[in-house]
Structures are given as C-alpha cells and as structure tokens.
Amino acid sequence: xxxGLLTGGGDVPGLNAAIRAVVxxxxxxxxHSVVGFRNGWKxxxxxxxxxxxxxxxxxxxxxxxTLLGTARYHPHADDGGLDAVxxxxxxxxxxxVICIGxxxxxxxxxxxxxxGVRVVAVPKxxxxxxxxxxxxxxxxxxxxxxxxAVDRIHTTAESHNRVMIVEVMGRHAGWxxxxxxxxxxxxxxxxxxEPFDIDRIVRFLQHRHRAHASFxxxxxxxxxxxxxxxxxxYETQVGRFGEIVAGAIGERLGAEIAERTGFDTRVTVLGHxxxxxxxxxxxxxxxxxxxxxxxxxxxxxxxxVMTALRGEDVVLVPLADIAGKVKQVPAxxxxxARALA
Length: 341
Ligand code: F6P
Fold this sequence. Notes:
Rossmann fold; nucleotide-binding
C-alpha cells in the first residue's frame, strides 16, 4: 500500500520520532511504501511530494522540528482545496493518509475522511489541549523548557527583589502554565480556564512582599484573560481579528502590577523557544508509539480515527468525537498551583 504522511500546524519536538516510526513500521512490518507531503495539507493540495524511506529517517529521532515541514492550511476552508487534495491522492496512487497535527489539522482530517479518504490522525501540540488524549506530542518538552526558564528566572528575581512575569504558550488551555508553574514553584499561575481578578493578584503580591518575601514569579498563559467586570480591561490581549496576541497579556499584566504595587517588575515572553530543540525522552516515546499505532491502524483499514493516550494505553478515538472540543486543565490541577503559592 502507498501511504501519504504529513505534519500540519505549529511544529513540536517529537514529530520526527513519529515520522520515523511510521516509515520503519510501515516499510519493515507491513511492506508499505510511505511518501511525505511537504508543509502539511498545503503540500498535499499542491502535490508537493517527497520520498520517505529508511534513508530519510536516519538520525532524526533526537531532532526537533519536522523533516517534512509544516504549515497552517485548511483544505476545506480553501476554495477547491479539498478537490486538489483528492486529485493529488489519485495522481500519486495514495490509498491512505496519516496526518500529525493539532486541532486545525485534525479538523481537516475529519473533512478529508468524510470525502471518502482513509485517514488516521496523530495528535501533537505543545498546548496539550487536544480532546480525547491524555497527552499530545510536544507537551512534555515544552513543560521541561518552561520549567527550566522559571527556575532560571527565580534566581534573578530573588537577586533583584523583583516581580517577574513569565508568559508561556497556551491559547485556549493553560496546561503549560499550570504544570510549569507547579514544577517551577510560581507564586501565581494564570490560565484561560479561570479568568483572573487583577485586584486579588495585587493584594496577594502586596501581602506576600510585606509578610516575608522580596520577589514573586507570575506564570501566565498567553490565552489568560481578566474576568469581566474587574478593573483590567478585557479586549487588550486580542488582535484585530480576535486572535490571541502573544506577549500582550504578559506585558499588560507587568505594566498593571508595576503601576499598582510600585514593585520593580519585568516580563519574559518565552514564545517559540518552547517549541524548539531536542525532544524529551517522553516525547520521543509518545511520538514513536503514536507512529506505530497510526500505521497499524491504516493497515487494519481504520479511518476517521486518531491515536490517543489513555492512561498507559494507546487507543483509537473517532475524529468525530473530538471535533470542536478543547481539553481544558482540570480544576484540581489549577487548585494545586494555587495551594502551593
Ligand atoms: O498551537 C500551538 C501554539 O504553539 C500555541 O501555543 C501558540 O499560540 C501558537 O502555536 C503560535 O503559533 P505560530 O507559530 O503560528 O506563531
């Protein structure tokens, strides 16, 4: 069987482990030939094909990024995009597609599957907000990087008696903020799941600095928002088209805290450093497990499903079940972050 493989959406560490697993298992165990499409669904629509053999996946297990390239492109949202995808598949005699991506890529996967193509998806996102799976590829590495950053910020915060705001990624869910906040011992963790009250934060910081501390760390997810009706305006961190503007909430929060408390305050926006570099062992293992499960699923004739981690097991879940849902941080995890402040 000829199987097409693509990576879509933002890159994450661990994608190459998944690609390697699909190729090794596909060629070795099942005798398939695997071809790659460059730059996500766009490459599939444009017929931008590359061979993917064992030679192409040598020494990629520990490397970050994606050897296939990636893009944010949704064929169903583009006039003629879906037809172009179907035409490429026919021209290249591809019988099944494996796509590795986050919510946008998975949504496209369900549309392509609905059009009659055999599609199996693999979840990746550092945000860890894909519904239906306990973990997505890339999350563990991002938390490791963010935790190290918080640790490093601690020492300089303490030396200078400062309030340090660390903005991490997470547009719709605060998984990185909550976990790196707990692991790094942040005093305040702010996530999109629970809109915050700036007055409470200011009171808390003032009390803490009066009582026993001369520095504080605030970890804020880029998608965190002030609660409506509180004294910080709501619109300031969304862009012209309603999208989250990275750095906006961190900078705004830093300015508000500095103004209201008089504390020396600095802002660090971690940004894409969270998505770069070497994957952790956990992401290499997850990518490898998902890759094997995906090619096995395709071989077994599955379609319209996504590989998922449930506890210790890799299972398949219908793409239809996850569409339009965001896996939010459970309240008890946010409560743990609060309890340890
Ligand atoms: O969706 C994953 C993510 O890393 C988000 O956390 C972040 O908001 C976004 O991608 C950044 O996207 P881009 O790489 O297009 O700037």
